Amino acid sequence: MPTIKDVSKLAGVSVATVSRYLNKNGYVSQQAADAIAEVIDKLNYKPNNIARSLAGMKTATIALMVPDILNPFFPEVARATEDAANAYDYTLILCNTDNNPEKEQKYIETLIHKQVDGIIISSYTIKPEQLEHLQKRKIPVILMDNHLSGSSIVSLMSNNFNGGKLATEHLQNQGCRKIAHICGPIHITSSRERTNGYEVIAKQLDSFTPSLIAYSDFTVKGGYRAMQELIQKHPDLDGVFASNDLMAAGAIKALQKANLSVPTDVKVIGFDGIQMEMMSPEISTVAQPIYEIGKTAVDTLVKLINGDSIETYTQTFEVELQVKQSTSIQSK
Amino acid sequence: MPTIKDVSKLAGVSVATVSRYLNKNGYVSQQAADAIAEVIDKLNYKPNNIARSLAGMKTATIALMVPDILNPFFPEVARATEDAANAYDYTLILCNTDNNPEKEQKYIETLIHKQVDGIIISSYTIKPEQLEHLQKRKIPVILMDNHLSGSSIVSLMSNNFNGGKLATEHLQNQGCRKIAHICGPIHITSSRERTNGYEVIAKQLDSFTPSLIAYSDFTVKGGYRAMQELIQKHPDLDGVFASNDLMAAGAIKALQKANLSVPTDVKVIGFDGIQMEMMSPEISTVAQPIYEIGKTAVDTLVKLINGDSIETYTQTFEVELQVKQSTSIQSK
DNA sequence: ACGATATGTGTAATCGGTTACATGTAATTT
DNA sequence: AAATTACATGTAACCGATTACACATATCGT
Prior knowledge:
Two copies of one chain form a homodimer.
Chain A: H1 4-11, H2 15-23, H3 30-43, H4 49-54, E1 61-66, H5 73-87, E2 91-96, H6 101-114, E3 118-121, H7 128-136, E4 141-144, E5 154-158, H8 160-173, E6 179-183, H9 189-202, E7 213-215, H10 220-233, E8 239-242, H11 245-257, E9 267-272, E10 284-287, H12 290-305, E11 314-317, E12 320-322
Parallel strand pairs in A: 1-2, 1-3, 3-4, 4-5, 5-11, 6-7, 6-8, 8-9, 9-10
Antiparallel strand pairs in A: 10-12
Helix pairs in contact in A: 1-2, 1-3, 5-12, 8-9, 10-11
Chain A binds a DNA duplex (30 and 30 nucleotides) through residues 3-5, 13-17, 19-20, 22-23, 25-29, 32, 47-57.
């Protein structure tokens, strides 16, 4: 592979001039520029990233840390992020932490070490100290689907509260009178807010009682168990809002097992808007703009990397109600 | 961050000795080793990967190229690969190509350029020239779920032919007499072999006719459409083997729409063994050992990177029949 | 006892870039 | 016309490792 020296020799200039040309900083005459351009083209020269990085520049690499790539939500995030990163000629390192704080910590060390230019973190176990650690190392961080109060970390979140309200209102509009809720882990901000949204609406109904809320864990199995519990306590419920799509799917399984038909007997809505076209009935949901969030995360991260100023440290994205079969009025 | 110089100074030895100690090559006295170890510990020194790479060493980075991270098969692959890579202290770069040959080619160039130590490729559009290109650059490659005849590329594949037979035999054992097949893209080796497996068994049945095979594309929608077509042509079919789980899910949707019950009226089996617990009924499948394949891919790749010799260039993995609700005899 | 081999260590070149600094010329001010 | 300022380029130090080579000492075989 040709080096900058080869280029400089053939173009009859010094390496410094070539470097200036490449980085578009400092002065380079038109004449020199033309000569260099021609040689670069002829040799098909590409600067060596590694050498560049060593000389104090960026590594053109960002990392995406996700808690569980097997949860269909995160491949969608990964896909969006990867796309956007590519557009900036950044390479994306995938870090799957399995919700394991140790793995998380190990990754942070590794990434500092690999000198990634920035990190997008989606984690429910991350601690402020860890983020401060990264900031000390001057590595920009974007927090996704999470928010640490008081810190000066950029965080991106959907309007979960509003989404919770939307979902519950929708069930109400579809004629549900007794609406249960399967909530996600309570230590997760976004999860809590969805539940808050539910409560605001559900409490307006006479039927409301705290035992209409079942606590679960964002998994299919968890949703299944929570639904069984709800059926037992409230055999007459006619609507369920699950805080994510996976739990909604679990809930539907439990309902079908109990010979309750969805949507005829009970209507079910989820949250997230992940691709689940394989389901039947297809699940109504409150969709997050996942692609947009991923893209914005990268856009903002790149700004931080380049030292540009950021307007807002907390960005909220609007969610969208997507009505599918699981809440339609005319039963399928 | 401390450098090798800091360590050498504090330990009272030269940088060469420290480097020898770190790489366990050349001679280092016990005394020097102890001193160095202590200083490294005290400073929490970690060698700078970038400098290392520049000095001709490896980048400790491997890439995983997948056609579509949104297809649940690939997050599972990614997860396995990432796990294994981690165990070797390698970092994993994720490359999502969207089945787009141009993106693929662009990624190959980028990866060569980033000097990744090796690449695991899962692609149905990759061309032998591209792999040769990589080999010329001395970058080891592992081909996953694909096989290019005649080339000296390591390739890993499940026993698709056997899997196709297993699936079809299973349907037969469950009492199916007229078994249809939804096949995947015919230009994909693994897909063709599954279909071959089906044919061997299905042709033993009197009911067999070529129009029992519907051609599709590995997607849920594709499976749905193919199933509709099959129902039309063969209203009396009682078993369907779909070449992957997504198409099986699509088929089930189509059957339910046509008021045919799964598994009572028609039994359905898929292929892959991806996590689809959200389905109801849960889908029987011929499971590939995805985790093992991913791990083997990394193990083998690391061997190639280290210049170790490889025994077999084509490795086949056995598949396993997983019976779930969609083919059980006692209807749920 | 003496060359050969094994052990241990340091100096300096190298990987392929970036960039501070020196230097020189051309254009602009005053 | 002298003093600035803008433009243009090259030399060489530097980023943080690896490693060829030179050199020194210890151990060994005969």
